[in-house]
Amino acid sequence: QVQLVESGGGLVQSGGSLKLSCVASGIFFSDYVMDWYRQAPGKRRELVASKSNAGSPNYADFVKGRFTISRDNAKNTVYLQMNSLKPEDTAVYSCNAWKAPGDEYWGQGTQVIVSS
Prior knowledge:
The chain is mainly β. Helix content is about 0%, strand content about 55%.
């Protein structure tokens, strides 16, 4: 059974930092591209950051220079370090594991609230 479990969300003031974690089980972690997505109320889900096993990370323009994605294959974990948070970063953040069409898994999400 595949599980992705996120943690680390919470309430933070504008300008603050949070570090999200996503622990995967039931998959061969290093085979998967690991992504972080977010969805704010009333908005579409959007890709925040992506990291394959060996490739360079990719970031959405709206988080470049503020967020950092990293992964620890030994711990089956992907992280999202979020700095200089803004109220518009408020959303549910979910991790995604993708290998091929139909071979994709999602976590349940963790809420991030940034107060102004």
